[in-house]
Amino acid sequence: MSDTRDAAGELRRRGFLRGAALGVGTVGAVAGAGAATAALTGPSAHAATPAPAATPVAAQDAPFHGEHQAGIIRPVQQATAFLAFDVTAADRRELTELLHTVTDRARFLTAGGTPQALGITAPPSDSGTLGPQVPRDGLSVTVGAGASLFDDRFGLKDRKPLRLKAMPAFEDDDLDPAWCHGDLSLQLSAPHQDTVLHALRDIARHTRGGMQVRWRLDGFTSPPRPSGTPRNHLGFKDGTGNPDVGDPATAGKLLWVGDGAEPAWTTGGTYQVVRLIRMLVEFWDRVSITEQERMFGRAKDTGAPLDGSREFDTPQFAQDPMGDVIPLDSHIRKANPRTADTAGSRLLRRGYNYDRGMDGNGNLDVGLIFVCYQQDLERQFETVQKRLAGEPLVDYITPFGGGYFFALPGVRDRGDWLGRSLLA
Question: How do the pLDDT tens digits run along the chain, 424 residues long?
Fold first, then answer.
């Protein structure tokens, strides 16, 4: 590395440390807020296409403090931004300061309040894009750690979650390294796009020099049409078969990491998978409705399984052993065969549409930000992904990026912070 790059890195770190010292001393309704005009850039900084006007999904506020991060089990919001970062903090002390800062900013942004007045000669402490006061607008902030955070830089090798690794390329993937992996993941979700972007600018300002964007993709959730689960760009309802993680017993079996072989600090966290999936919609739009429905195993209009009449009807695979009604290679049948042996591979799915405009050939560049949470990457996501290999739908989708992360345990009270148990 050249002296110039070393000096630039040191300036970024010093800038971050100054920002952390100045901006996080007070938190809550009168906390020091950030966000001048710092722009986040990466392989893409395209804004999401706003969802049509509708009653926001899950517009109610979620508590910031708790055993788990609130954004994990919360229903999908109307707008989201998903980012992966390379940590540029120099050592464990600076990493600790970075996570303190992210926690303090998230605590303020989710609660809302009046940004700190810094005086008439200083830049304003807030971008002002939400007005003179930051409103409570249902914002959730979810932070995860990638496998690369547990290298030699911060002395965390012996604390890596048992199953955390770099996301591999599966059989039907076409992964672009520029869109994969990261030391940290950050998802910001809210009922309104301006709330998401305001939070993004705020966190960017306060963490400048501590982490650098590796990739970013913005997404949105369409309102249910006409009801039930929202639809993806292929026109089908997305997320109908989610387990009921509101049931503590179900969540304990499928979602949360607890006592056992995992490092003790991971209790209350969960494994996060992000998959960036382009959908070849021009090609898809030339396929007959019958073939589309047989690929999914569901009716396009109602979302019902092909052997049912309502969206949430349970498909009766045992009564259709040859796949005469719901084909054996349909998406819902391969993803969840609904047998006693496969019950433990269910996962919590959180999907967002994205729209990046057009590609260089004039084709629509749209698709899905697939996010899922599970207790065990191998038993759940990877098992499902291997079952889906070669399904007919792979001709119409191209997974190109994403990564594996471990969503950190929640912030339990005002004295706690994201990553405390990891770095203690």
Answer: 444 444 445 545 555 655 554 444 333 333 333 333 333 444 544 444 443 333 344 446 778 999 999 999 998 999 999 999 999 999 999 999 999 999 999 999 999 999 999 999 999 999 999 999 999 999 999 999 999 999 999 999 999 999 999 999 999 999 999 999 999 999 999 999 999 999 999 999 999 999 999 999 999 999 999 999 999 999 999 988 899 999 999 999 999 998 788 999 999 999 999 999 999 999 999 999 999 999 999 999 999 999 999 999 999 999 999 999 999 999 999 999 999 889 899 999 999 999 999 999 999 999 999 999 999 999 999 999 999 999 999 999 999 999 999 999 999 999 999 999 999 8
Q: For the chain, what are the domain ranges?
A: 3-222
For residue 370, give the nearest of 188, 217, 164 by alpha carbon: 217
Give the span between the Cα atoms of 268 and 247, in whole angstroms.
Answer: 15
Instruction: Give the pair of three-digit tokens for residue 8.
Output: 């630039």
Q: For residues 278 and 365, is the Cβ–Cβ distance under 8 A?
A: yes
The pTM of this model reads 0.87
